[in-house]
Specification:
Blueprint (H helix, E strand, L loop, with lengths): L7 E2 L2 E2 L11 E5 L7 E7 L2 E12 L12 E8 L14 H15 L10 E11 L4 H15 L9 E8 L2 E4 L3 H6 L2 E7 L6 E4 L2 E2 L3 H30 L7
Helix pairs in contact: 2-4
The structure holds uridine-5'-diphosphate.
């Protein structure tokens, strides 16, 4: 943490947000012609596109599970998505994010319905400004719904963190770089079950509880935006109600 960088100005965060305020989120459903389900999502300055294929026969065959489908989420950050050009292709970070997102999605998709199949979820980050795993998972959930994949619920993700000794919702880029902790989570909003929880940095037990509560509240706000976007496509006259 660099203590010279000030993350609050006149009691407000650098982008003017309150501590419990999310960045602006925009979701579009069914943006790709070829994919079975797709979603374009903007979350602050993050831009993410997701294409879902399947369920289809898992290839190579040794990856097949005779009892259920495998969920194969692939998170990729485009080389042009960050300030310093990123080396193209998978790295440790993107493998880790792909794994935790696959596991989170596997817990809500009715995988037993599709033995030997694979459900492929391609997550491409076009613009990365902190919080891309949450943006990616949230968009993936919408793309899965668009593909008609049966799920127990539409999962959703959001992070909270700590900057200058304050717990805040949804860290922006400077906050992520110079703050002291980030706690991205994903939940099943219907049951409240936690599907993903990671933590970067340090929090006391009290701060952790506060950050978790705040991230869960954020998830419910994002969940409403997801549902509204899905209804806008499938029931255009319902106005998302
Ligand atoms: N980032 C970057 N280059 C990288 C990886 C990450 O510039 O190779 C930036 C990017 O803006 C990303 C942010 O650092 O959104 C935070 O990355 P983190 O690993 O915490 O994941 P995220 O918050 O995006 O889920």
């Amino acid at each position: 943490m660099n203590s010279d960088i000030k993350l609050f100005e006149n009691g407000k965060r650098l982008d003017g947000r309150k501590n419990d305020e999310l960045r602006k989120i925009k979701i579009e459903v069914g943006v790709l012609h070829r994919a079975e389900g797709s979603c374009y999502l903007e979350w602050g300055d993050n831009k993410v596109i997701v294409a879902v294929y399947g369920p289809r026969e898992a290839i190579p065959r040794h990856t097949q599970n005779p009892l259920r489908a495998i969920v194969n989420a692939k998170y990729n950050m485009a080389a042009f998505s960050v300030g310093d050009r990123k080396r193209p292709g998978p790295d440790r970070r993107s493998r880790e994010i792909s794994k935790v997102i696959s596991e989170a999605l596997e817990n809500v998709i009715l995988v037993e319905k599709f033995p030997r199949a694979s459900i492929d979820v391609n997550i491409e980050v076009l613009d990365a400004e902190a919080g891309t795993r949450c943006a990616g998972l949230t968009a993936a959930a919408v793309a899965l719904a668009d593909a008609g994949i049966p799920m127990k619920d539409i999962p959703v993700a959001c992070a909270a963190g700590k900057i200058e000794n304050q717990v805040v919702l949804d860290l922006g880029k400077e906050e992520d770089n110079y703050g002291s902790a980030d706690l991205p989570i994903a939940i099943s909003p219907r049951t409240g079950e936690i599907l993903l929880l990671q933590m970067d940095g340090h929090l006391t037990v009290e701060e952790f509880d506060k950050a978790l509560d705040l991230a869960i509240k954020g998830c419910y706000i994002v969940s409403d935006i997801q549902k509204k976007a899905i209804l806008e496509k499938y029931q255009p006259n319902s106005e998302g109600k």
